[in-house]
Amino acid sequence: MNDFRKQAMRLESIGGQYDFWLVAAAGALAAIGVVMVASASIAMASTPYYYLSRHVVFLALGVGLAITAMRMELKSIEKYNQLLLLGCFALLVVVFVPGLGSTVNGARRWINLGFTRFQTVEAVKVLYIVWLASYLVRFRDEVNATWGALIKAIGVVLVLIALLLLQPDFGSSTLLLGITAGMLILGGANLPRMTMPVLALLPALVALVVFEPYRMRRVTSFLDPWKDQLGSGYQLSNALMAIGRGEWTGVGLGSSVQKLNYLPEAHTDFIFSVIGEELGFLGVCAIIGLYALLVGRALYVGYRCIGRNRHFAGYIAFGIALWIGMQAFVSIGVNLGLLPTKGLTLPLISSGGSSVLMTCAAMGLLLRVSYELSRAEKHIALTRGETVVVADPKAPASKPARAAEAEAPQPAPARAAVRGNARPQRIEPTFERIG
């Protein structure tokens, strides 16, 4: 019986559950994205459903990446933290390699894969969050107490930002900077010490806007889009007209007028305006509510991981929550005229192969965090003899661990199975509400 108890106590032998609310929120946003991409892009190509077909293909590939991430042990990922950081630099440099890099509208942000283009910064977001989570685990005390560890993390992101600005990609640069600041604060960095680098970087960010004519035009058009409605304010003025036409309940799914070659990038950067026009204020509130649920639940899962001393998992959850929350906030703010145009897509909804693939991969990683949290909590409950869901499918789910032990087979056959070549039965995870 003691051998059976030891075997049941092994963390790997305990089944966990993926967080139901994370799955529900991400799935709902992805489903809405399919519908809205179909509606917003129907008049943009010679084939009515070209962009929809492309979006569905990338979404299916993204689900495959998510499933792969959901089945990877986080401790195995953590071992390759330095390679992940090197991967970030390599992905941002490879776009400048002749023959591999691809230029679109004057920006060199993509690599040519033959059948499609891939925006490398989308992969960098995921890899960088995982690396920074590992860094905060290794230097948690130093980040809070010393300048060196804090400056090192900021120095890494500044090099990444410099490479992004060479492409140029100001929107992703500010997003990476925001993710870094948020993760450092949640990782225990001293707030007064954090303010000094932020204040030092503000003049540089302002200079990047003031001395770059096209960025300055974005700011001036954001302040008064109607002043040059057919010029620099064209995108924002049409986006605001689409939002205004939606009123409370919208003009109806598929009935948007602004998407008919009036609103640029209606299926990517400005898809939220089409949602506002077709689904109205109620539809907009539903979208914002789903993002609030996804981000809030991710932060909650991360908080519980930190409480269980699973800091690496917790920081990954924090980083993904900050990424999705900030990018959704910026994209929605741009469509509502609250922020200057940044060129960021609406996560899980906008069309865009690179964004869809890597956002799905991040969702899979987040679900893996929730799975390992559930598994760890069950492990703790087993060690205390509390009632848990037993991994053995033949054992009733509601019985206590001690009751399961009483009904277990004799120790001798169990030891023989371990010594032989028999492989342990695979434990398939299930979905349930955590907390």
From TrEMBL:
It is found in: Cell inner membrane; Cell membrane. Its EC number is 2.4.99.28. It holds the Pfam family FTSW_RODA_SPOVE. Its main location: membrane. It comes from the Bacteria. It is a multi-pass membrane protein. Keywords: Cell cycle, Cell division, Cell inner membrane, Cell membrane, Cell shape, Cell wall biogenesis/degradation, Glycosyltransferase, Membrane, Peptidoglycan synthesis, Transferase, Transmembrane, Transmembrane helix. The chain crosses the membrane at residues 20-43, 49-70, 82-100, 120-137, 149-166, 172-191, 198-216, 279-300, 312-334, 346-367. Residues 395-417 have a biased composition (Low complexity). It catalyses: [GlcNAc-(1->4)-Mur2Ac(oyl-L-Ala-gamma-D-Glu-L-Lys-D-Ala-D-Ala)](n)-di-trans,octa-cis-undecaprenyl diphosphate + beta-D-GlcNAc-(1->4)-Mur2Ac(oyl-L-Ala-gamma-D-Glu-L-Lys-D-Ala-D-Ala)-di-trans,octa-cis-undecaprenyl diphosphate = [GlcNAc-(1->4)-Mur2Ac(oyl-L-Ala-gamma-D-Glu-L-Lys-D-Ala-D-Ala)](n+1)-di-trans,octa-cis-undecaprenyl diphosphate + di-trans,octa-cis-undecaprenyl diphosphate + H(+). InterPro entries: FtsW, FtsW/RodA. The keyword 4Fe-4S does not apply. Pathway: Cell wall biogenesis; peptidoglycan biosynthesis. Residues 395-435 are annotated as: Disordered. Residues 425-435 have a biased composition (Basic and acidic residues). The keyword Transcription regulation does not apply. It is an enzyme of class 2 (transferase). Peptidoglycan polymerase that is essential for cell division. Belongs to the SEDS family. FtsW subfamily. This is Probable peptidoglycan glycosyltransferase FtsW.
